[in-house]
Amino acid sequence: MVRSYTDKELLNKVQEIKNFRGIPTDYWLLGVRSNEDITDIFDDKIYVYKGTEFIKVLRATTIPGKVILQGGFKKYNKDGSAVLKSDYWHYDCWKFGLHRGKMEALRQCNNMPYYRDGDEDGKSEEIGELYTGIIGLNFHGSTYHKNKDIKRSSVGYWSAGCQVCADNLDYRDVIKKFKESYQNRFTYCLINEF
Length: 194
Hints:
The chain is mainly β and 194 residues long. The protein has 3 helices and 11 strands, in the order H-E-E-E-H-E-E-E-E-E-E-E-H-E. The mean pLDDT is 95.
């Protein structure tokens, strides 16, 4: 699991990223990818901010699940699992929509850089060619049962490259806040644990 940070540590870190253009003044998300990278476990964190104000932290995954990494990716792309580029600001990358037509989500609406991990070793790696495009790298929960307060421990099929929240109650709370804000685009910064 990602270690705990102060707001100052996180906000200082994200400003050091090469493509940093400024901290959004509205809601935005900050993913921290675990250095431990335990396969198929929600061991990452996604922090919710409004400007520089911390709102909430979510237990999450920023990498595909084991079944996808070990060959399940072939259902989506023969070249490998999508692994979103880290230590990078993905400005205005998401807007409201549905994930697979079933779940409220923040859907990818702008190009995002990612890698294809096709070595089937069950570990997520940023290796090989860097791609960019709109391929459905969404932010969503881990159940299609809207009103169930499910907390998952295993990623399974829930991520083939998406950023996924393990606790549905926390996820619904964040989406509700976002909807009440009338904000229509959301920025995501993804960093590695430091």
